[in-house]
Amino acid sequence: MAKKRKLFCEYGPLCYKISLFKESFLKDMRDLIAGRRFSKRYDYDNFEYIWKGHTKMMLRRLHGVDMELQQNKVTNLRLAAKKLDGIVIDDGKEFSFWNIVGDATKKKGYLEGLVISNGVLKQGVGGGLCQMANLIHWLVLHTPLTVTEMHHHSDALFPDSNRREPFGTGTSICYKALDYRFKNETGHPVQLRIWLDDVMLYGEIRSSVPLEHRYRIVEEDHHYSKDEDGVFFRNSMIYRLIEGKADKADVRKELILKNHSKVMYDYSLIPKEQIR
Predict the structure, then answer these.
(1) How far is the C-alpha of 255 from the C-alpha of 242, rounded, in Å?
(2) pLDDT tens digits, residue range 166-190?
(3) Tens of pLDDT along 58-116?
């Protein structure tokens, strides 16, 4: 069998940085050619109507993860929140996580946190910012805003620990190759408010007009399965329900994700009653 050829980025840290720079430059050029208009305007006076609010616990005991990385994550989230809070996405404009936050470097005060690279847990500067992207994505799913770029986690890396959102609704980010973006095509400006205390991360999407519909995210047919090689997978169907406020019987159901994620943690932690 022929030996697999190494990629340029695999020849060392310098080559990896060069590859990242190349990918960032190419993405910026594609955005420029496509005429994408990204949000840059801020307003710190709350817009009148809350379209969706949500909270996330920042410090969670994850199986096999050093709590120091969780503490560092709080610092990283606090730095990113200062960039994101108050951003206004006008009609026709697009939100880009990395265009607003910028590169999360040590020079800017970011610390070593937990990162996921090719399905493997590692330490990296700026680790933990995916929790911020997850929060924003959860907010967006409950609005008529249009997701234009997101990248699902491909593997089930941890067993559930006080999970409130359906599995698989998170998003991966990596500067700048994997961005999280959404576009405002509602006809009205929307505002993102982000803040945190020592324990919780908070977020709201606000607008100058009330929301016309109700949005709910539901998970169906959740179970674990084992393939012929003995590898376990986590499976489910994630739907978005859009209901009319005046007529709750008027419901539109959208499939937003079909999960089939390889379980990367100890199989003994899988609930036996959920295995098929």
Answers:
(1) 11
(2) 777 888 898 888 999 999 999 999 9
(3) 877 665 566 788 889 999 999 999 999 999 999 999 999 999 999 999 999 999 988 87
Q: Which residues contact 17 (CB under 8 A, 6 or more apart)?
A: none
Question: Which of 160-164, 165-169, 220-224 has the lowest average pLDDT?
Answer: 160-164
Per the CB < 8 A criterion, the answer to whether 101 and 39 are in contact is: no
The CA-to-CA distance between both ends of the chain, in Å, stands at 36
Please give the structure tokens belonging to residue 197. 């205390």
pTM, two decimal places: 0.88
d(CA 116, CA 247): 43
**For the CA atoms of 170, 175, 177, 182, what is the dihedral angle to 10 degrees?**
50
pLDDT of res. 179: 95
CA dihedral in degrees (129, 133, 134, 135; nearest 10)? 100
